[in-house]
Structure formats: structure tokens, C-alpha cells
Fold this sequence. Notes:
The chain is α/β, with parallel strands linked by helices. Helices cover 38% and strands 15% of the residues. It contains 13 helices and 12 strands. Helix 4 links the parallel strand 8 (129-134) and strand 9 (160-166).
Amino acid sequence: MPLPTRSLGQTGLDITTMGLGTWAIGGAGWAYGWGPQDDASSLGAMRRAVVLGINWIDTAPAYGLGHAEELVGRFLAELPVGERPFVFTKCGLLCDPARPFAEPKRDLRPETIRRECEASLQRLGVERIDLYQFHWPDDTSTPVEYSWETMLRLVEEGKIRAAAVCNFDVGLLELCEARGHVAAVQLPLSLIRRESAGNEIPWCVEHGTGVLCYSPMQSGLLTGRFTVAAVERLPHDDWRRQNPEFQQPRLGRNLALGDALSPIAQRHGSTVPAVAVAWTIQWPGVTGAIVGARGPEQVDGWIGAATLSLTPEDLDEIVTAVHRTGAGDGPARPQDVETWKWAVGVQE
């Protein structure tokens, strides 16, 4: 059965409500790696996702210093052109191969954007990137308008189909939109990180911009399988060891929220990961969720989110669990957005 699709803003792309994320399959050996990763398992995850109906893959040159893009390129080469998923990638987050564990630089200078675009096209083995995204805001003092004009020219030149951004706030989005339409915005959204639901997502709805949410399972915390002991067993070079969400007191709250999803999953004959992802997909304005997998079995664990419809009672139970555990921040349901904005002093 084909998976449900939604229009990605005004791009003309109809995408499944979930896409495969490749952050973890970039492997170890860089600042935000997830520890050792087997390439055969990574390719297996991509094959499984596409077989089950996923029609887009999100990647980035920063993931494994280009390794994730290379693996995506190997996978695409296995398929006839007409059967390939859409490919979304990024630019502007530069890692130094000589110092791979140093903090990556955020560089959106026009010459950097063009150089990275050409490198990604080569690694992916494609003639055009379906969605090209700024990975993070710039730290080089380059006016965002100059950066965005370069992206728009890449569209005109046929190197990319649509131009988008990640992790931009409303102020930066307004500056870009004034020069040319922002096709999509990629934002963090999970039951733990809910802030974008009250800030950027409403802006996207108003401007006809697609929304892709990343880390809907909060990097494993909302899978129902994570424990304090599991955090302690993470490889020494797994970035999650240093992340505040994986440290107390947040860790205990986050795990308690993940556990609270289990009864809902059982009622639907589903899984905790599927419930966590389904919550993000059902948020108004969200086009699709980027869900990672390090092997085929992980894809099987969350693919059910595509057809899982959470009931009003389920959503009320989730809101209760959010309040009871104190996990995360941001509105837990759409009707709470304005109240949350007022409480935290968000300016319109």
C-alpha cells in the first residue's frame, strides 16, 4: 500500500510524510558522529525504506565528512533513474578533515555554497539536487541576503530544484523571503523539543513554506528502548554523550515521557517510535518528518507512523504525560501555542 504523501510547500514535490535521515550513517570519526556504523547496514536501511514506500532521503556533506552522501550516491546508483527517491542535502557546515572533532564552521559565503553544491552533486552522482538547504545560520558575517541570492541562482541554473534552510529563526526567514520564496524549512520537532511549533512553523504555514522536522524521536530517547545504562554504554565518540538531553536531570524526564507512550502504542498495535513520530506528523503545518535508521530493522520500527492516526484521547494522554514528566519545552498541542508564546515572551 502506498504511503500517504503531502505537497512540500510550493515545490511541486509530493513527499511521503516520513523521509529517511542519514546523520547516523555518516559513521564515526567526526564531531557529531554516532559511533561506529556498518556501511552494509546503512545501505540496507536505505533499501528497506524505499521498498516500504519512503520517497525521499535527507543527507548532508557534514555527516561523516561526506561519507553519508557517498553512501546515498552508491544506493542511488543501484536504482533506475525513474525509481530513485528525492534527495535533499545541505551546505554551509564545514568540517576540517585535519581536525575532524573540532566544532564545524558555519559558512554561507556565496563561494562556499557553490563549491559545496558541486561537491555534493559529484558524491551523490546526480545532475540536480531536489532540495538544497542551508544547514545552519552563517558565522562569517556574510549577509544572509547574499547567501540566499546564490541559492536562488542555483535554482535558475538547474543545479538544484528548490532552495530551503534549516534552523533559521523567523527574523532570518523574513530576510530570505524578501529576496525569493523559501521553499521549505527544516526544524527540530519532537515531544521533547517543541519550541518550533510555537515560532517558525506558524510562519511557514502563513507563507506557504514546507516544514521538515528532524529528530522526531529525539535521537533515540523516545524509542521506549533507551535507558540510563544505555547512555553509559554509548561509544566514547558518540555526540549524544555531551548533549544535555542525555544528561540528568533532563535524561530522567525524557525517558519517563518515552515510557508514557507505551500504552498508546499498545492500544494501536504499534510501537513507541511510531507514536513519537506520528505526533510530529500530525502537528499542523508539518509536511514530513526526517527519521533516522542505522539498519533495516529500525526502519521497520517506525514505518507504521505513516498510517497511525492518534486520537484526541491519545493526544490528551500525551499532553498529560508532558506536563507530568516536565520533559522538554514548547507547546504540547496547537491550542497552547499562543499561551506558550505569551509565557516565554515570544515577539510577533
